[in-house]
Design brief:
The structure is a homodimer. Chain A is built from 13 helices and 15 strands. Chain A is of the alpha/beta class. Chains A, B: One of its GO terms (molecular function) is nucleotide binding.
């Protein structure tokens, strides 16, 4: 194969951005041959913007079965992700899945199990893993030169959205249409980065507030407390109602502290391991010595284009992905655990009880209110995920 | 009265510092006439350092009854604070109480009730209220020009202590001797500032970890989630095991965000109220405009000396205190609520059930282990509460 013929299913905010990037030739080896969308207004946009050589389908399944594609990019509402990816595998197509991997882990586990049966490339659109700040944090924590993690505080409240955003689609911010709020839509990146850098928590207790800042039925404000495998604790605080929000990711380790904020990464490195110092120092109020320095962050932040390039290159020449599709379940597990903990009003241990989660989710889907007076709008998202810390 | 004759009960880390300041004439109108301490080593220090005119007692009650003092400064282990203050009132003495006001609110409520019966000056050593950064935050929040509070995040983990600190006194960090750990000893200032600036929470859920970083039976690591009266949520994260720790106090309001860190106070002020913007903006991903500026923080940070000066001036000429003694119960209520929530493993509403708290505390006091091999040390605390943010 010299070129990968790709089809995009779902041409909304994200799908249309990907389509334009591919169309402009930004991704060597990828040709956009087909798109699918259930909305006429979006198919109209395709006709007007992507040229006649792109075949347009109503249903993703038609695109998958068309023989026009070697790979698909699934950018539909979240519930449909696993089903479409599984179908793509059945038709021998490689798949790149937008985040989140799905809405509930049971569904995503089935997708992962299907992936295991095929020798096909499966990737997740975790474009924030290309951010050199987070890459550096991941390397430093994994490298253990700073010792074990002692505490994690991520205040990631800069996902501001207006009511107009929530009013722009009838599936948005409903239990039945989207399956959640800020945890499902905005935070999959952060939850993936959290587990990628710090490892999976073993217990989570979350406080989710539904429609706290907007007229929506799902959560737009979350504070989660968690415990890592080694006993370190952390918080993850997010919202779409804070302006200006904060994106400050702090990891305290035995031999120092990492803080990412405003696109900068600062390291305070200790001369000795604090755990040793604590038990050998003769002074009561003294602290181990160390110094701050801003880390030199080099390398481009290729974001979505980087993920697409790696996906194409993996298919064509076997080079590494940015994020394997099978890893999508981890961040979703965290998200599910936060929801479940908040619904049950108690701590939840991981891995979660998938059946119980689905049961609780389904209760909410049944009671989900269908939105009225929705004007379908495709917003220009440029700048919304390219902020200093790469949101 | 031209001069106030003051006696200090408890000449440990803090009491000795206060004694030296008064002795040096730093506080106009205060003369140190007596001290009391149960430890011979400390009485010896008084003889060697404070001169012969300072009368030395073994028991605080003897000092109170001696007729040598018009006022007392109580700087004993925490459990004794309310009893000694009440006794001082009975003898017609003014009282300045070191933080915390006591160990459990029931005891402190009795102290406050006694204070109401006497026309005596009663003050708390909340020296961090003199910090111009916190004063400014308090004024800005109270003034309402930034609207209502939406979120509070205080990461106050820079209370680092070594094992040697905990080994320096047999009462330290035991349920029976101190009644708690970082919440009772290091955080009373922060909990007071939290309620002073943001108002009292209505519900708290805390995760306290006992002896996580040190060989102690009480908590040295706490993450607390709380809800304010208006529904805003917050976290309060503290530890004596983090090096370097963080002191970052962030308050998000409807019209801006305040962040105090590294002795600086930054304000991001919005042009419009976010609550209005959210429901009137036609764009989905846009944010209300605004700008950051570092606030000019003027005024000296007089700390303990400021509190002592205000105490003396109140007695001599009726000028305002830095912190009224009756306000000490607020921060302690928060501390008690955090402990209780963690012990019961569930959220606790405020005001707390004082009887239940005392019952739970007493269980822990009964099981409290008496420390062995303790070397009594009076550390030099200079610099430990004078850090950039005034700890």
């Amino acid at each position: 194969m010299k070129e990968v013929r790709i089809g995009i299913i779902g041409i909304g905010n994200m799908g249309s951005t990907h389509a334009e990037n591919i169309k402009k030739g930004e991704i060597p080896g990828l040709i956009l041959t087909a798109v699918a969308d259930r909305k006429e207004s979006r198919r109209e946009w395709v006709r007007a913007n992507l040229g006649e050589e792109v075949v347009i389908f109503l249903e993703g399944e038609e695109l998958i079965a068309s023989g026009l594609c070697d790979a698909v990019l699934v950018a539909t509402p979240h519930y449909q992700h696993p089903g479409l990816v599984i179908s793509a595998f059945h038709h021998g197509l490689h798949a790149l899945c937008e985040k989140p991997a799905g809405v509930y882990t049971k569904q995503v586990r089935e997708m992962n199990e299907e992936a295991e049966k095929h020798n096909l490339v499966f990737a997740m659109m975790f474009n924030q893993r290309t951010n050199p700040v987070y890459k550096k944090m991941q390397e430093l924590v994994e490298g253990k030169s700073l010792g074990e993690i002692k505490r994690v505080n991520w205040i990631i409240t800069d996902w501001y959205r207006t009511q107009a955003y929530y009013d722009s689609g009838d599936w948005r911010a409903t239990w039945d249409g989207e399956g959640g709020g800020v945890l499902l839509n905005q935070c999959p990146h952060n939850l993936d980065l959290l587990q990628w850098i710090c490892g999976m928590p073993k217990e989570v207790q979350a406080f989710c507030h539904n429609g706290k800042w907007h007229n929506i039925e799902v959560e737009d404000d979350v504070t989660a407390y968690f415990t890592l495998e080694n006993g370190a604790t952390g918080v993850f605080i997010t919202s779409t109602g804070d302006a200006p929000g904060t994106n400050r990711f702090e990891i305290t380790l035995e031999k120092g502290k990492l803080v990412s904020e405003e696109g900068k990464l600062t390291l305070y490195e200790l001369a000795v391991n604090e755990r040793e110092y604590c038990f050998t120092a003769t002074e009561g109020f003294k602290r181990p010595e160390g110094a701050y320095r801003e880390l030199d962050i080099t390398g481009e932040n290729s974001q979505h284009i980087g993920v697409l390039k790696a996906f194409a290159a993996r298919i064509l020449s076997g080079t590494p992905l940015i994020a394997d599709g099978r890893e999508g379940i981890q961040g979703l597990m965290l998200s599910n655990a936060m929801h479940l903990s908040s619904w049950l009003n108690k701590p939840v241990t991981l891995p979660i009880d998938e059946e119980l989660f689905l049961e609780e989710l389904n209760k909410r889907r049944e009671a989900s209110a269908r939105k009225e007076n929705v004007k379908e709008i495709t917003f220009d998202t440029k700048g919304s995920y390219g902020s200093k810390n790469g949101n």
